[in-house]
Specification:
There is one protein chain. The protein is an alpha+beta fold. It has 28 helices and 33 strands. The strands form six sheets. It has an eight-stranded mixed sheet with strand order 1-2-6-7-8-3-4-5, with helices on both faces. An eight-stranded mixed β-barrel has the order 25-26-28-29-30-31-32-33, surrounded by five helices. It is elongated and about 175 Å long. It starts with a strand and ends with a helix.
Length: about 900
Amino acid sequence: MPLCYPAASCYDCIIVRVGLRWGKMALRGASLRQRYPREPRGWHQEWSLRRAMKMARIAYWESYDSAATDFWMSPEFAALYDFQTVTESIPIAPLRERDLAESRDVLQVHYVACWTEGRPFAVETKLLKPDGSQFDCVVHGEPEFDSSGQVQRVFGIVRDATPETSALRQLAESEQRLADFVSTASDWCWESDPDHRLLPHPKSVEGNVALQTVASGGKPRWELACAPGDEGSMALHRADMEAHRPFREFVYTSIGHDGSRVSISTSGKPIFADDGTFLGYRGTARDITQLEVARALLDQRTGALEEAHRLGKIGTWHHRLDVGRTIWSPELYHLLGLEADAFPPTYENTTSYFLDDDARRLLKLQARVLRSGNTEATDIRVAHADGAPRDLAIICKAEIANGQIIGLIGTAQDVTERKEAERRLEQLAYTDPLTGLANRALFKRRLADLFEAPIPEDGHSALYLIDLDRFKEVNDSLGHSTGDSLLIHVAGVLRRELDPQAFIARIGGDEFAVLMSGSGTTAEAPIALADRLIAKLSVPVELAEGEACIGATIGIALLPQHGATAEKASRNADLALYMAKEAGRGRAQLFEPAYAEAVDQKLDLGRRLRHAVESGGLTTHYQPQIDLKTGRVVGFEALLRWSHPERGPISPAEFIPIAESTGLIVDLGHWVLRDACKQMRAWLDAGLPARSISVNVSPAQIWTGDFEKVVAAVLAETGLPAELLWLELTESLFVDHTKQRVSTTLAALSKLGIGLALDDFGSGYSSLGYLTRLPFNCLKIDRSFVSGIATVPEKRKLLGGIIALSHGLGMSVVAEGAELAEEVDLLTAFDCDFVQGFAFSRPVGADQAVEVAAEIEQEAALIRSTNRAEFADLSTD
């Protein structure tokens, strides 16, 4: 519906923005009447007026009768409508086809009202040209009255308003686009007054308190609370604004009163009045808080990556195929000692730095990558700017965009140190650096070569595997430098005693191997040579740190009788060495096939035992210890038990020696110690009486070093009071070991509050000196002294003497292995303190131990009660 509004004249007229319809400007059926006579017109006198009308795109028209079917028009009108006329009159009907349908009626209404009511009008409309194009115009009409006040003529103008409306339309569209952009953008506009105070933002701004503070205005930007790091840049910004200079992308961080923060990027320009007066600033701003967080994270990661590249000595490079240009990272220039400004990385410049044919190899690799699109790597050598060679590990990858290979990217890592180490290792790969002998790798290679070469008919060889006895004790007690000196001494002995053609190798820490040719087919010569070597190696050696005494055990395999392959020969010699160790060390043993199966079984048992330790296949049983005076169970001895997955329970007498020979005894001992302490702590937590727990300790545990720290750690871990733990040590601890080491370790354990018991007393050396010098609290009599005391008087005398001696030294006594009630009675008579054995209970699991202890104490209480009753009866009698 068109809109109408009053025209600006003395009459009440209405302006309507509608289309023009000329067809109904005259009343239907009326004829042209000339009530106002025409006067001759001097158009030549109106030349200036016509020029002005043409410039203003204005045409003139007149109508002399409300019923007229035509009207008069000026030449400008005819030109505007593309009409041809001679009489300067034109019928109204042809104009109808030029009108827009929605405006014809409105224009007709105002035209009629002008004739009938004398109201002028102005209508904004669109007109159609013969070519179908439209143009905007404004049709004005105004009545002329006669002396009686009747309308005698209507005249007016038509003004082509196309440029103005087009400009207004474009302006409106531009303003709408700007509004759309502003409404969807994260930026906002701001203004400041001449004193640089920010004006409040006219619209609400979503954000935290810091952003709301900025949007509320009222202060110059530099009076807002800003981040401490912004003081310098804010001072420069203030100087710019006070100097009325424009600025772009000034970034600062504002802090709200609640501690919230917002990072803002802003740009602005000064605004001046026409007379040059400074009015303030106008500009835009945007919240870049998330961008700053992302940028900080990116900077952090980039810095970390650059630092990783620097630490890893890694440089990167990039080659684009379209421009044929290669770009190096600063780190790559640094790796090669080159300056980026002075060294363009072109093919011609870089070729001379490659060593050998590595330039050609690298070009071939890059060509393969361009063909396949795969990633490849290689190592090359180049010359540093100082002339020193450098090893680089190159990784090359195709750069792909839209499925097309557009270039190459890669890394270059300086691996010179690693390569130098590899070269040194390769140089020393077959040499033991300490002794100068061949190492294990060369030994295996030499042994393999022996079997690959044809063996002469009379060509027999012997393989000797030599293991040093007591070397670990010397190494631990006198230090590693002494151990190294001792190994060098052993190497010298082997060189002197063996034929110059003999192949000697150090294949382990204290293990050596010898390959001898022409050894014959019998055992006499190899055994004699081995015995001679053992004798030479068992002589005490004077070293800077003191005297060291070791020995040797040797296993021998004759070749090819004892092995048709290098692997078989080495294995059989190792089995012979194992048999020699089992026989007591310090001896030589020739491989005997009959023993191989038994040794294999022991080795398998050792492997299964190690697996049981690692996988939790062990258990602890507990044998009660009874106070003979009260009948109370005062403690338990923790005893290790192992059930083989196929053979079932294995006797400790069988697997403990294997554990000792393989070194596994240390892990077993630590496991039992921890498990027993943990169990006793659980019993205490369950409210059971406090009882001691006794754990056997292997000499190897003492000699591995820091055993007292292991015990202290277990006590701390389990929370068991130290006074409830007793450690049982056998006399074998003192064989082949220095007294100082034993004394120091036992003193440290005693200081922790732990009880120490000398186990199996009487079965070994039974040195009374140990009892007087070392801090033992208890002596455990070996079962061999207890068994048979009921029938052998000599044993009773010896047992009584041991008990009296122990009490005289202030030590308590525990008798092991009591199986008969008579034996218990005799031990009670000898004033023995404690007893354990089958007479009371076999070792049982933790779930049964508490019940067994309760039964023992109940039975003891019953016996005491019975004895008191019998004594009372006797007294009465």
